[in-house]
Amino acid sequence: MKKVITILCATAFLFLSMESKLLAQSTSKEITDAFFAVYAKYPAKAVDYAFGTNKWMLKKPEVVTNVKTQLKTLTDLIGEYYGFEPIEENVISSSLKEVKFLVRYEREPLQFTFLLYKPKDKWMVENFSFNENLDKEIGEGTKIKTQK
Prior knowledge:
By secondary structure, the protein is α+β, with helices and mostly antiparallel strands. The protein has 5 helices and 4 strands; from the N terminus they run ααααββββα.
């Protein structure tokens, strides 16, 4: 019995120390790198991590739950996860940027978009969204580029 309790305590300590290291990211790239490191095995925990970088999201747990549920429902239909690739980074200001990734799945790709905000000295996820309709987005992006 003592061995089980010791193992559980050690596991909990390891998880909590890992999570606190993940939350202490100071650059936007560290946030997205940490997100995808977790996402490869634990997509729901990766979403928790992303929103966990923003203390204000703790006041909106229903938003986080909704995103996780929608993502799980979608990814259950599109097969095995194969990885991710950066698509685009839009630096809006020194404190705000949008970063998009192609997320490769067996059946079709997804697009993950992070809106990252740095109110003072640490970056946080202001918003995270995903999109399965890349053909529409690519078409709109091509139209915009050809009109310029």
